[in-house]
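Subject: two folds for Thursday's group meeting

Dear M.,

Sorry for the delay on this. The cluster queue was jammed most of the week, so I only got both jobs back this morning. I'm pasting them in the order they finished. Each block is the input sequence followed by the predicted structure tokens. Could you check whether the formatting survives your parser before we put anything on slides? The first protein is the one we discussed after the seminar.
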Amino acid sequence: MREIIISRQEEGQRLMRYLRGYLPGAGSGFLHKMLRKKNIKLNQAKADGTEKLICGDRIQIYFSEETLKTFRQGTSTALQVKKADEKTRLSPLRRQIKVLYRDQDVLFLHKPAGLLTQKSGPGDDSLNDYLLDYWAREIMAGKDLPPSFRPSVANRLDRNTSGIVACGLTTRGLQILSSLFKNRELVKYYLCIVRGTVTGSRRLRAYLKKDEEANQVALYKEAVEGSAPVETWYETLCSGREASLLKVRLVTGRSHQIRAHLSSLGHPILGDGKYGDPEFNRNLKKGSRSLMLHSSELILPERTGSIPDSLRGLKIRDPLPEEFREALLMFSLT
């Protein structure tokens, strides 16, 4: 018999989800059968798999070690935390990552432009890889890593966009953040430098359709097949003859939404190689990978309920990166 004690990082999961992660070689039907036959128990009592686990719960699995080994085989390599080597840890992009806020459930990080939020290939480094390394090294140092939980980012930024990325350090933290993003309860502000003179504020509405193969979006005035409604608000903070600084609020949060919306108005973002103006982009220093789009502020709702008091109304702010400040000076937008 093997007994597993649920850690704080793992609480909040349903028992069946936990078992599927812990025993990936066993099918759901088999696990339900083992629960019915009491070969798997929760706190020495019969369970049906729908129970929500809390810290300190004990799961008893009455399998032989050989059977356990068989069902444990094939455990996702994502569950294995591999610490970054010294070269990766000291890479220029990783050195720019900053912790903006941390508590026992959530972590907010500054992502530098040029770094992927999540890797797209085996050889990539990403903010999520940094998070796993940080978690194992700084938070779980000297402790046994929980077998069925790993922290994860809860939102994404484009590779060349800088700014705030929210991360869950526990199952509870991930659930809270995922719910807030899904229900659009977070207020998200961006700062960007765009071509031309812009004044005032405006609320933009359109329908966005993404070409997954080309990784590019198109905007339409009316709904078309495969499109989704998008809404973007902006306010002009500073305006010049060649460029303007805008504060943008994402009302919806679709891929490339801000970039495509502003470009459709004739005000593409500086440094945007996909929707931008090559002539305007030449103002950036050669070799720069930065898009002058920065996720600068994230505001959590005031409502009570599942959100802990420590997070209610929390405002996360991320100062502008150096390249962005240099571009503001170049266009006298200060």
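Second protein, same layout:
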Amino acid sequence: MKYTTKLSDNKRLTLGLISDAGWIAYFTGFGLYLTNGADGLGTVALSVTFLLNCLAVLAVFVGIIEILSQRIRRLNRTVQKGDLIFGFGFVVYGALGGLLVSGASAVIDILLRYETGMCFASQIIMAAGALVCFAFGLPIMRSFKPDEI
């Protein structure tokens, strides 16, 4: 089944660029966590949230690759259901997962008093970036409606 969007180019571009800024911030926070804050892996709870964050980052990355693939194939306004799920679905719901896990990691850091400055800051950057990516990517994904047969 094909899905088509009626979203104007200007609105889609604006939402897309803001969502892109969100996943870039999310990846940046994850990179900071890997390089400077990985001492937070000392507790089992933070190790589990780290692994869940890895899955969320992977989902967003796969979605981005799929959206770029769609652009290369010139599928801008009409996509197949699978393309929509693997593209915007992975980005949006991966970002939602990243928001929940990063936020939970920050709360666990505070509750266990295990935080280091960089570890906590990177989790906040990840949560904020994931929130922006989710909030501005969801309207684009929801704008795709099934074509009438």
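Two things I noticed about the second structure. The mean pLDDT is 86. The longest strand covers residues 2-5.

Cheers,
T.
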